[in-house]
């Protein structure tokens, strides 16, 4: 397990603590000032952030050829594209949309080394819109598997998302299902796979990061 990915371990994702503390602190200060409505809102905010930044443990399937989902949520797209930036050729894509109630910790779809990483600023359109893939802020992470094949994970900010977090750095090794990072609030993760992979999910399916098998190497 990489040193950077350990930052994400625990019942609560580490990036959530400032939000949680701020929510409860605001509620407590409002209670001291006898501002009951604001105190209640602060308590609700703290509880929401506590729920949103939950980080449950997951057990990845042991099959060597199984590719797991990088995100919790609903599959909104399964198609074939050309990915020229990193894979430089045809690829199969699975896009997973995370609503505000889904776990937002993202995980590695396969065991592999981080070969490249790139952050790009952009807009904050609703993540389920077709144009969001190109227009929105994004974080691309290229993983090289032991046999030389590569997979690409693209974290895409959504309408409410304002921060994409990546735990590992270039050269770090991630086990299958290991924490990769997270996106703060509603968002989307696209997984690009070699064209020879067999896709096992379809549009509308619900998946869990690090646990649901979305494809197999062929």
CATH topology term of the largest domain = Glucose Permease (Domain IIA)
Indicate the proportion of strand residues: 25-35%
* Helix-strand string: HHEEEEEHEEEEEEEEE
Query: What number of structural domains do the residues give?
Result: 2
**What is the CA-atom radius of gyration, in angstroms?**
18 Å
CATH class of the largest domain: Mainly Beta
Provide a count of the helices. 3
What would CATH call the architecture of the largest domain? Distorted Sandwich
Mean pLDDT: 88
Distance from N terminus to C terminus (CA atoms, Å) equals 26 Å
Largest sheet: 8 strands, antiparallel
- The CATH homologous superfamily of the largest domain is termed Glucose Permease (Domain IIA)
Task: Tell me about this structure.
By secondary structure, the chain is α+β, with helices and mostly antiparallel strands. It folds into 2 domains: about 50 residues; about 150 residues, Glucose Permease (Domain IIA) (Distorted Sandwich). The chain contains 3 helices and 14 strands. The strands form 3 sheets. Strands 9-5-6-7-11-3-2-13 form an 8-stranded antiparallel β-sheet, with no helix packed on it. A 3-stranded antiparallel β-sheet has the order 1-14-12, with no helix packed on it. Strand 6 and strand 7 form a beta hairpin. Helix 1 runs antiparallel to helix 2. The longest helix has 17 residues. It is elongated. The N terminus is likely disordered.
């Amino acid at each position: 397990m990489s040193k950077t990915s350990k930052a994400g371990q625990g019942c609560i994702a580490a990036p959530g603590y400032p939000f949680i503390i701020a929510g409860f602190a605001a509620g407590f200060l409002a209670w001291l000032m006898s501002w009951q409505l604001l105190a209640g809102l602060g308590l609700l905010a703290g509880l929401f952030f506590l729920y949103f930044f939950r980080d449950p443990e997951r057990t990845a399937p042991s099959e060597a050829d199984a590719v797991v989902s990088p995100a919790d949520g609903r599959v909104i797209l399964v198609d074939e594209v050309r990915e020229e930036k990193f894979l430089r050729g045809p690829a199969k894509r699975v896009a997973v949309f995370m609503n505000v109630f889904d776990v937002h910790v993202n995980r590695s779809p396969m065991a592999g080394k981080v070969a490249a990483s790139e952050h790009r600023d952009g807009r904050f359109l609703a993540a389920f819109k077709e144009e969001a893939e190109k227009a929105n802020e994004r974080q691309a992470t290229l993983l090289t598997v032991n046999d030389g094949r590569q997979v690409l994970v693209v974290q895409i900010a959504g309408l409410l998302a304002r921060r994409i977090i990546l735990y590992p750095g270039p050269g770090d090794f991630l086990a299958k299902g290991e924490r990769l990072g997270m996106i703060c609030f509603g968002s989307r993760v696209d997984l690009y796979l070699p064209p020879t992979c067999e896709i096992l999910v379809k549009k509308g399916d619900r998946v869990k990061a690090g646990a649901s098998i979305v494809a197999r190497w062929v």
